[in-house]
Write a sequence for this structure.
């Protein structure tokens, strides 16, 4: 973990400035964010130059599915943030519950998205219909694959920490346990990135 | 992390979660009101920046990370919506 300077949180608690999780995951996160930024700009450019086509395409989407997915991802980000807080406190059972809830909410996203894809395919829309559907399926599909990867990572983390009785606190933690807490933070950071990307993608595709 | 700090963190995280859900609903309701597209664009993108910063600050914990990383993320979360706004704005002009 990268440390910088000391940051006083309260009168008695002094925490170093640390990057949550592994350094490598943050390089990966920023690489992913950059790729998605290019997609967002391309989508916006195409939308602004094909307004009628994009508005007609957006009218066939299911905003309620987008809203459910947004709520699911935000809430799963919240539960994994709680999971980290509990893990740092040594309350591993609560941490495991938070992680399991995040996985469940990620699955809610997956099934809602699959339902929406199925509805669009059934209505005869696909990647080759026009530029709107090409961008829609490509950007949301690419994000969907990241959600699947994130779910696999979270599931692996849950399996790894399930047999453990305690991760302890940062001060009392053993080397192996600290590594597990670091892995959990890395997984959570990746999951938050997926949430961040959806926070930008949702208004772009469903609202604007 | 002491029990008091943990309790404070949980309260703060829960408040941010509710705020994020509220801001999402606000953006959707605003889009249903049939307002001018330029105004909708500005409002929704500002809401997106606020939501992104809340996730990065509180959920990701970047407010406690080295400043370089915090600034990198904050720059991304401001520059991407700004870029999107400029693309729409310049195309409409």
């Amino acid at each position: 973990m990268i440390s910088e300077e000391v940051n006083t949180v309260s009168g008695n608690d002094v925490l170093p400035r640390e990057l949550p999780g592994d350094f490598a995951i943050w390089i990966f996160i920023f690489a992913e964010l950059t790729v998605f930024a290019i997609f967002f700009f391309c989508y916006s450019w195409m939308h602004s130059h094909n307004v009628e086509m994009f508005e007609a395409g957006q009218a066939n989407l299911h905003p309620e599915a987008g809203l459910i997915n947004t709520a699911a991802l935000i809430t799963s980000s919240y539960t994994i943030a709680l999971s980290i807080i509990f893990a740092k406190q040594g309350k591993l059972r609560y941490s495991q519950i938070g992680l399991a809830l995040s996985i469940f909410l990620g699955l809610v996203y997956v099934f809602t998205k699959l339902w929406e894809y199925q509805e669009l395919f059934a209505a005869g829309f696909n990647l080759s219909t026009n530029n709107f559907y090409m961008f829609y399926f490509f950007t949301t599909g690419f994000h969907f694959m990241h959600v699947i990867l994130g779910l696999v990572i979270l599931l692996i983390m849950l399996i790894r920490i399930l047999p453990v009785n305690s991760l302890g606190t940062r001060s009392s933690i053993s080397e192996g346990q600290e590594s597990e807490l670091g892995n959990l933070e890395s997984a959570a950071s990746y999951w938050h990135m997926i949430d961040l990307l959806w926070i930008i993608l949702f208004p772009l595709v469903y609202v604007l | 992390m002491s029990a008091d700090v943990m309790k404070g963190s949980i309260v703060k995280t829960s408040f941010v979660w509710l705020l994020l859900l509220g801001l999402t609903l606000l953006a959707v309701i605003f889009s249903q009101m049939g307002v001018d597209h330029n105004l909708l664009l500005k409002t929704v993108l500002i809401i997106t920046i606020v939501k992104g910063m809340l996730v990065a600050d509180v959920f990701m914990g970047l407010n406690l990370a080295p400043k370089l990383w915090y600034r990198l993320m904050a720059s991304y979360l401001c520059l991407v919506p700004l870029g999107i706004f400029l693309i729409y704005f310049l195309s409409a002009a």
User: Anything to note?
Assistant: The two ends of chain A are 39 Å apart (CA to CA). Chain A touches chain B through 56 residues (CB under 8 Å). The longest strand of chain A covers residues 3-8. The helical segments of chain A are 23-49, 51-59, 63-89, 92-122, 131-161, 175-207.
